Amino acid sequence: MAVRGGIWGIFLLIMATFAIWQVTSGNARIDGDVLSLIGLEKTDDTARKPDIETVRDLLENDANQAIIMVSANQQDMLETATRALASDIANIPGTKSVSMPGYDAGNLARLSDFYLPHAQSLLSDGDRALLRDGNGEPVYQNAVKTLYAPASMLSAASLRADPFSLLPGFLAELGDKLGSSGIVQRDNHFHTPIIISLTPDLRRQGRDIAWVGKVNDAIANAQSTADQPDGFTIAKTGQVFFAVAEATAAKSDVQRIAIIATLGIFAMVLSVFFSPLPLIGTLITVGSGLIAGIAAVTLIFDGIHAIALVFGASLIGISVDYALHYLVLPADEKSPTARIATIRSGLSLGLLTSVCGFAVLAISPAILLAQIAVYSIAGLIAAYVTVLFVLPLLPARSVKHRSLIPRAYQKLDDTLRRLQLPRLVRGVGALAILGGFTVCVLFIPTDDDIRHLGHGNAPLTTQARLIGDTMGMGGNPVFIRIDGADSQTRLQTGEAVQNALRPLIKDGTVGSAFGLSDMIPSIKRQDENRTLIKDHLYEAYAPKLAPLLPINIQTPNPDAPYLQADEDAFAKFPELANLRDGTTDIVRLNAVTDANAVAMAIGDIDAARLINPRATITDQFAHYRNGATMGLAIALLIAGILAIARYGLIRGLCVLGTPAGAMLIALGGAAAIGITINFFTIMALFLVFAIGADYVIFFSESQKHGQQDATRFAVFLSLISSILAFGLLASSSVPVVSAIGTIMAIGLPTAWVLSYAMCPTSVKADQSDV
Amino acid sequence: MTHRWFVPLAVSALTLFLVAMLSVIPARADGTAPKADSPSAAMPTPISDQQYLTGTFALDRHLDGFDAPLTSTGDFTLSPRKGLIWQNLKPFPDTTVMNDQGISRKHDDGTFETIVSGARFHQFIALISAVLAGNWEPLSDQFTITPTKTATTPNWQVTLAPKNNNGLSEQVSQIVVKGDEFVTHVTLHKPSGDRDEITLSNQTRHDLPLPDDLANLLSGNPD
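^ Those are the sequences you sent over. The predicted structure of the assembly is below.
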């Protein structure tokens, strides 16, 4: 026994070292961003990218950007403050670059160099409409006036390549489509943005909290040093701010709850045993579960998500069961080996049931579910082995039956043991519970909207809305995805989309739309432009323009190379990567006020679809919920088979009916107080199932090994610890955490009570059932 | 709203605007503002907010590799408070208006086409106002200013080299401004090797208000 315990102890130490090394070295980051888990499902590589994957790629790109909007009544002050703040932020570690569209010079030279050789293939919409109508006169007049205009981009090189000055119009339109603004004036109030690019490893290395803190300090400093604070405001938005705010709120809640729960469990164990040894045993068991869980997840995955971590911590609730189950056994003359033998079958069946339940999740394609499954399975097995190998090494301590908790328990136990239902009634009840649970899961209202999961941050939401309304930046990045077999097909579709959106942009339904085809027109469009320019401009007006120019005007070469969306273009403009994702092109929309109108406008374009990331992610969580529900059903089925195999049909149904009844009551209770069903509440039901199954299995098994009183008391202590660990979550300010806590707070006591009802402990009942 | 790509266009235009404004700056070869009781006080005092300046210009646009420049002539009107009107008369009539809303061009039908717009243009007007007050400091943020002594007093010459941190250097490599009582000659050298030579003459200071036609142009109202 000691050898096995020693080996296991060494193994635990190795796992702990490995887990600590993985997390602290950055090999396995702890990620708090919900979005980082989505869209990572295993899919057929040859298939078209699912929406969620495109959304994830897009959001991942956007996650590296933050926007700060500075507002002031006076422009001088605005510029001074903006430059100072931008400089401060540029110096914060984690900031990759800072730009000020209101004050930066931009990249006209780069664009001119890129487009000038293709100037005779490019037309603005306005010029194209004129030439299509055969009206080249205004285009010619513009070219003449540009020659002598004081504000002109004219140069020798531009005149040779673009004698009719077509390119400035194309570039001006490009700028409008991009929709990025410099300084906006509203009601004598001026606003300008600071665009911040973050280093890609900021979140991965967990430095985002520090970065946000320093940005907040810089903003506070700017506000405190403002010359004229009246009207001077600074707003900020970006995923990094929301993610940090959410993580901070959740962390604060969880810390508070963890402290109370830990102290409560300590007090409970100490008051029951009047000895620290059982407490040490409990801690070793729980700790070994946590260590093994983290080690397993960090070994298999690149990181561990905070949600998986929280659910993994649910091991406290289950592994405490295992520890207490052993610790409450009477410290009589039996050897540790004999004592452990009395509960081994119960522990094993409890473990098997829980592992089967979580194993169903492990085969899910969703990374989140797989992480939770791996964490839980590894953790439970480790806790089980610790109870078998390590706890027997500790000196046994008896329960002090005259202390407060045992006495309170005795009264409750006496009452509940009077629940003596006939066997048939229990069987029918179990069937009714199972049917009711099925109906409840199928018909209870669900709500997977991701906006309802988080704590929410009213100031950040208000600021994001303000920046969106004022600058047309940030916010939910609605976009149109364009699929097609080849690049040219997609570019043509992109042009069709722009045509369809033009009325909406004109009436303000859409602020702006920008896609790859705006930067790189399709070859078909370039051909059309060339024909229009040749037929309606050069042939008619080149003779008139020629005398004014010190050059010979050459007729456009029909065989000139086309502007292509090739590697060269992507190398020159890395930002184009935001507009293409594999074989999908993206048209990014800004300031959309009516998404339905957009969807209708592009409804006839088969290869184009409006994607709302928020709705897509919500759908993904609905998918997770369905997967988890299916997993729960399979887990129930497996548990039912195991129970029937072990206890026979009716008693097996009763055993199964206990966790099912607990889940049913938890669902109903939660619904009654306004908690809707989502992926996370289903996962809470998973925990109710796993812990509730343990309760009833321990009850049933105790009737075989004759330690019924000790077992029931162990289950009671386990219930208290689980309520402390999970029930307190109901007090969290984070809706999803609160919902999980509420489900647990209702479900676990129900499971405990049902264990008495479904598995009567009187001698008579035992005799009739066993 | 101004798109960042087109800021250089605005910078280019407003550099011209800035230089035009210099035509009303009483400046000495050492680049300092004259004191009222100094010898150079014979030069005109800065134009006030209650005044505007009119004159004629000749713009010779020399394009690298071409023998003959593109030449245009016309009138200009400058109001420190309202902006600049640049009216080409030859070879083609064309009117460009620059004010704190941006740059616009007046069409033959009286309508205006906005070439570039944005609240940021206000800062240039503010810059000019500071310069008109005889304060070179705002210019020194954008340019390295090098005064050059000239052979004859009161003639003077100032060379402005854009600093690299503001994007001006992509559009202008050097500006040479010459003058006596007013700015009389400006040369804008561009990185491409092209250059614009502007000769200003017949400059006259007037008291506000502006004539209606000019006021309408600067306010963007059609006739």
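The longest strand of chain B covers residues 195-207. Chain B has a mean pLDDT of 70.

Shout if you want it in another format.
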